[in-house]
Amino acid sequence: MLYPILTKTRSLYDLSGLWHFKLGDHDPKELLSSEELMVVPTSFNDVIVDKDKRNYIGDFWYERFVDIPEIAENAELVLRFGSVTHNATIYVNGRQLASHKGGFTPFEVVVPEDLYQDSQLKVSVCANNVLDYTTLPVGNYSEEFQKDGSVKKVVRENFDFFNYAGIHRPVKLMVRPKTHISDVTITSELSDDLASAELSIAVETSAAVDAISVSIFDEDRQLVAQTRDGHAILDNVRLWEVLDAYLYTAHIELFVDGKVVDTYDEPFGVRCVDVADGQFFINHKPVYFKGFGKHEDTFINGRGLNEAANLMDMNLLKEIGANSFRTSHYPYSEEMMRLADRMGILVIDEIPAVGLFQNFTATLDLSPKDLGTWSIMKTKEAHEQVIRELVKRDKNHPSVVMWVVANEPASHEAGAHAYFEPLVALYKTLDPQKRPVTLVNILMATPDRDEVMDLVDVICLNRYYAWYVDHGDLVRGEAGLRKELLEWQSKFPDKPILMTEYGADTLPGLHSMWDIPYTEEFQCDFYEMTHGVFDEIPNLVGEQVWNFADFETNLMIFRVQGNHKGLFSRNRQPKQVVRDFKKRWTAIPNYNYKKK
Ligand code: GCB
Asked: Nearest CA to 73 among 147, 191, 159, 179?
């Protein structure tokens, strides 16, 4: 799906700001009272302040009026939502126009012409934050009877982050030609010496046109190539490299009767990604991932788009010598993906397939027994839908170098292989760039028990030796970590291994002379121990710390106002260990660290 931009043929109006808001029922044929207000984009939960409202589950409404701009005969009016978490139904002037399931991907709604005969549109959004065994993420849904006889909806998150909800990303009103560019897919084939690239640019249109022209501009805005039948050669191509991004722009024009009817600019980078011999190659060089699992999580905004925080996070990431992040545990905003492209940061792109583990956070059972997850989950449809939507949205991003099919599913339980085989295949079929696909494996699914890692290209592991296993014992933790990594390496010698999570909760300012968990000293020692082991394993091609920053979670016995495994606090202040990381990561090159 195209990112909304302003071009010669397209106008764009931002609907950010204050909307009328209500938790509960509303008839969109009536006016929503102006008693309660909400900002778009943001999560409603923290902004609303009241405790019961913060934890509210069910339908909630946004409404506002919008003046209708000039719309030519051959143009159409579109409402475009970056994301509404988790479900949305859109009404204009009381008429239901569309619904969208899934809280982390964009959707658009064409407003029928008869509705813009008036001077204003009344836009009403019915959002809903229920999560259950059919949704991604997975939630434990129940209904509780209250003293007054009413029913309260409850979702216990089956995952470790707060179930923030709302209109999380920008809402735009667009006027675009009826005959328009509806999609573009860019792929490149590099020559063996990486000096030139053959580009294929496939443009989809909403209606037949006489001609499509695509001109390629470099960063100096110089024309460097033009397509013929969707193909072009880029000589002396400047590659998109890790932390040295180079972005070309494909300027697309549609012609009807000799006139330009629509234009669109898509930035793209040229690079190749391969996995072979236990290594992960970018532009034929073995790369070492240094970075983080993250969250979209800031004070006040919750999971709502916070572009200043995004840029600060990426600046901190570079400052400490990192080069990558994973969009744990859901697709991040389009704005963040464009930022990563621009800054040369590697992205492992994840869908909200988290919580695929029967009642996991409630039981906190780390023993590897079969809880019947795969006969209980009804998530297949949501899973397929979000893979389709993510690939469509992110397929052209050079920063995206791998797709994630799920985070920590019960991959050691019967039925896991059958569940994941078609989903991995779906990614492979849909992705025009044929990027590697991974599944982020949970600690119970050790090499002897796991049933799915044969399906994926890279072994991604979340491991908490000396934290959830052998808590506080760095000696046993070290032995356990080494043993398991060696087992994975010998089970799949050709697959690279990436540590996608490792970490220890740490409260800044808490100190000890001894290895006491939660202190800053323990966090430093914990990482020193793990890094020593990582450096011994030839196939281990990267380390992504859990987590970049502390973040908000649901209430659990081992969460102290959130998860504190961040290297930075929630307000982005460094913990003591950041200095150690900076030393280590600035000494580790992006390429050839583990060259065999
Ligand atoms: C994990 C999960 C992540 C949690 C983390 C933790 O394995 O993937 O969502 O936040 O552990 O801190 O427990």
From this structure: 179
User: Which residue's C-alpha comes closest to atom 7 of ligand 1?
Assistant: 462
State residue 365's pLDDT score. Answer: 76
- 553 Cβ below 6 A of ligand 1: no
Query: Is the alpha carbon torsion for 567, 570, 576, 578 positive or negative?
Result: positive
Six-digit token string for 386: 């979000």
CA 593 – CA 281 distance, rounded (Å): 12
List of residues 6+ apart from 246 with CB closer than 8 A:
219, 238, 239, 240, 269, 270
- Say how far apart CA 72 and CA 252 lie, in whole Å: 21
Q: How far is the CA of 325 from the centre of ligand 1 (A)?
A: 15
CA gap 501, 485 in Å, rounded: 14
Ligand 1 centroid to Cα of residue 461, in Å, is 11
Give one word for 138, left, alpha or beta, with left for phi > 0 and alpha for psi -120 to 50: beta
Determine the Cα–Cα distance for residues 169 and 163; give it in Å rounded to an integer: 16
> How far is 232 from 216, CA to CA, in rounded Å?
9
Task: Measure 230 CA to ligand 1 centroid, in angstroms.
Answer: 44
Task: Please indicate whether residue 520 is annotated as part of the active site.
Answer: no
Rounded to an integer, what distance in angstroms lies between the CA atom of residue 185 and that of residue 197?
Answer: 16
For residue 437, the cross-strand partners are: 403
- Strand, helix or coil at 479? helix
Residue 63 falls in the annotated catalytic set? no
Q: What share of the chain is helix, strand, coil (3-state, %, to 5)?
A: 20, 35, 45
Cα–Cα distance for residue pair 551/562, rounded to 1 Å = 6
pLDDT bracket for residue 363 (50, 70, 90):
low
Catalytic residue among 241, 266, 389, 501: 501
Report pTM. Answer: 0.98
- The tens digit of pLDDT for each residue in 299-352 reads 999 999 999 999 999 999 999 999 999 999 999 999 999 999 999 999 999 999
Name the β-bridge partners of 502.
none
Q: pLDDT-derived band of residue 362, with 50, 70 and 90 as boundaries? A: low
The helix (H) or strand (E) run that includes residue 417 is helix 416-430
Residue minimizing CA distance to atom 5 of ligand 1: 160
Contact 122, 97 (CB under 8 A): no
Tokens for 355?
Answer: 């919580």
Find where tokens 């621009």 sit: 342
What Å distances lie between residue 407 and 10, 185, 349, 455, 481, CA to CA? 38, 27, 11, 15, 20
Mean pLDDT over all residues of the chain?
A: 97
Select which of 408, 413, 451, 552 is catalytic: 408
Q: Contact 27/119 with Cβ under 8 angstroms? A: no
Q: Which ligand 1 atom is nearest residue 563's CA?
A: 12
- Residue minimizing CA distance to atom 9 of ligand 1: 160
Q: Is 310 left (phi over 0), alpha (psi -120 to 50) or beta?
A: alpha
Give the DSSP letter string of 118-183. Answer: SSEEEEEEEEE----TTSSS-EEEEEEE-TTS-EEEEEEESSSS----EE-S-EEEEEEESS-EEE
Contacts of 557 (CB under 8 A, 6+ apart): none
Closest residue to atom 2 of ligand 1, CA basis? 160
105 within 8 A of 386, measured Cβ to Cβ: yes
